[in-house]
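Anyone? Bumping this.
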Amino acid sequence: MAGRQLFSRSRRLVLSAGMGMAAGVLQLRPVAAAELPADLLAAMQVFAQGAAVREGRVVLEIAELVDNGNAVPVRVAIDGGAPATAPVVAMALFNERNPQREVVVAQFGVLSGRPEFSTRIRLATSQKLVAMARLQDGSCWFRSVDVIVTLAACIEGES
Amino acid sequence: MARTRISLQGDPVRGVPMEIRTLIAHPMETGYRPGADGKVLARNLIRRFRCSFDDGARTQLVFAAELFPATAANPYIAFHFTPPGNGTLRFVWEGDQGFAQTETLAVRVA
C-alpha cells in the first residue's frame, strides 16, 4: 500500500510540474524586442541608427502559412499613415533564419507620398519576420510576425 | 537587356499619390545554392533599385531600395509616387557582374 501511495504522489508532482511549464510557455508568447535573436537585433539596430526600437505603428502583411518559400508576397506599411510632422524616411524588412538577416531596405523620397512598399521574398524555413520604419524625427518602430513555410527556398540546389 | 514591366495604377493627377508596380527579369542567384555540378553558383543579384522624377528643372527621389539575397527571383517592387507635374520617371536597377538597366516613362498629369 505504501508503495502505491508513493507512486500516485509522484505522478501528481509530475503532472503539476508539467502544467507549470505549460503556463510558463503561454506567458512567453507575445514577442518583445528582447526575445528576438541577437543577430537579428543587431541588424535592426544598425537600421535604427542608435534610436530606441519600439513595437507598433508598422504593418507587415504576409500569409501566415506559406506554401512556396521561393516567392512570398509581402507588404510593409504604416498603421493609419505617417504623421505629417515626422514622415517615414526608410523602411526595412528582416528575417530570422535565412542565411542573411536583411531582406529589403527601402528609402522614401519627397515625391513618394505614401510610406509603403510591396515585394516578393524568399523564405528558407518557418521563422520570424520583422518590418521596421524609421521616421524623420529619428524614432524607430517595428512589428514581428511568425510565418510557417512548407516548401523552403535557398536550401535545394538547381533542379 | 533584361525584360522589365512598369505599370502606373490609374491616371496621374497632380498631388495625388498613385501606385507604381515594377518587375524585372533577373535570376537573383543568392550565392548560397549549389549548381548541378555540386559547386556553389556565383552570386548574381540586383543590389539597388532607384526611381527618381525629373520635371525638367531638377531630379527628385521617389523611392530607392537595397535588395538582398532574400528577394525573390524576377524582383517585383511596388511603391507610391505623387506627381508634382509633367515630367519623366527614371527607373534604375544595378547589380552584380556589372548589371545595370535604366527605363524611363513620361508622365503627363491630368
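Late reply, but here is one note on the structure posted above: The first strand of chain A starts at residue 53 and ends at 55.
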